[in-house]
Every structure is written in structure tokens, then in C-alpha cells.
Design brief:
Elements lengths: L1 E5 L5 H11 L6 E7 L5 H8 L4 E3 L2 H4 L2 H14 L4 E4 L8 H6 L4 E5 L14 H9 L4 E8 L9 E8 L6 H24 L7
């Protein structure tokens, strides 16, 4: 199975996916990496792994529809079966959502439906979890639709929140679990334990 990974910044989840594929923990290949940020470390990680990488952004192409067409061209060129959003800070155009219906997944650093929605990403999520005095948080993998963080949850794992946690210490603990969990969940997806259209 061919996976396209979309990432906007560091790409540490991307690296976990690349490593998982290379170690045969995920029965698939990353065939394309797309970033809306030309300076993202994700693009560098893709280049180092000899994976075709693309900087595709509305800023570059002028409007969302043109951007979507370029993205669809890349996905078709690389025979992409599923799309994984690994820290991608953009809403996908409806044409991509329709073309890859039920085949687009996102990872979120909390237990949805709590702490999801617009603006809930990165440290904002971990700060909100601590402020709410939650005893545990976690990682969610869900299908992507036209509304932030509201698609069907396909996998979830828990991470404890410690009494003296700061957003930074909690983020580090969640990220460590995230890197393992993304491999576990993707393995289930490509092995048919999660239904694809």
C-alpha cells in the first residue's frame, strides 16, 4: 500500500512512519511527502530517505482550488492509496476529501472529542489539558472530513498527566507514545483491520 504523508513542521511522526515501513512494522511504503511549508524539516527528512517531496501551498499557487489540483496530481502520480496527516496545519480542499473519502487519517495529541477543533494543535492542546486538570490525555487517530477533528475515531491510546506537568513535559511524553502508536495504527489500517472505501 502506498502512503502520502502531509506535514507542516518537524515531521517526527513522518520519521516514525518512514522507519516503521523500513522495519517492516507497516506493510506499506511512503511514496510522497507534501508540506505547505517550504522550510519544514519534514521535507528534509523525505529527501534524506529518498522519498519524493513537494512544497505545495496556496501562497505558491494563488488559490485553494489550484493547490488542490496540484496535490491531486502528485497523489495520482505516486499511486497513493491512503493519506496520513502528521502535523499538517491546513484544512484539505473538498475535492481531495471526496477523491480519498475514508482514506485520509489524522493524528491528534489528545483523546478526542475532548480538546479538538480549530486552534487545538501543538502546545495549545497540552496547555488546555493541564488547565482542565485532566488525569490522563492521549493520542487519537481519526478519519478526516470537512470539520476539524470530528471524523470517525479509529484508534486511541491513553497517556497519564502527572501532577507537576507543564505543557512541555506533557508534550514530550505524548509525542513519545505518538511515535509508537502511529506505527501500530497504520499497521492495522494497511492490514485491513480498518475498513477503507
Amino acid at each position: 500500500m502506498n502512503i502520502a504523508v502531509f506535514a507542516s513542521h518537524e515531521g517526527s511522526d513522518l520519521q516514525a512512519i518512514i522507519d516503521g515501513c523500513r522495519n517492516n512494522k507497516i506493510n506499506a511504503s511512503v511514496t510522497a511527502v507534501i508540506s505547505n511549508n517550504e522550510n519544514s524539516t519534514a521535507l528534509k527528512r523525505a529527501d534524506e530517505a529518498n522519498i519524493p517531496s513537494y512544497h505545495l501551498s496556496a501562497k505558491k499557487f494563488g488559490d485553494e482550488e489550484t493547490l488542490a489540483n496540484h496535490i491531486l496530481d502528485v497523489l495520482q502520480k505516486h499511486n497513493v492509496d491512503i493519506i496520513f496527516l502528521a502535523g499538517y496545519m491546513r484544512m484539505l480542499h473538498i475535492s481531495i476529501l471526496e477523491k480519498y473519502d475514508n482514506r485520509i487519517f489524522n493524528i491528534h495529541p489528545a483523546c478526542l472529542p475532548k480538546f479538538g477543533g480549530k486552534g487545538m494543535y501543538g502546545m495549545n492542546v497540552h496547555a488546555a489539558v493541564i488547565e482542565a486538570k485532566e488525569k490522563e490525555t492521549g493520542v487519537t487517530i481519526h478519519r478526516v472530513n470537512a470539520e476539524y477533528d470530528s471524523g470517525e475515531i479509529i484508534a486511541q491510546t491513553k497517556v497519564p498527566v502527572l501532577e507537576n506537568d507543564t505543557p512541555e513535559t506533557l508534550a514530550a511524553r505524548v509525542l513519545e507514545r505518538e511515535h509508537e502508536f502511529i506505527v501500530e495504527a497504520l499497521s492495522d489500517i494497511v492490514n485491513g483491520k480498518v475498513m477503507l472505501k
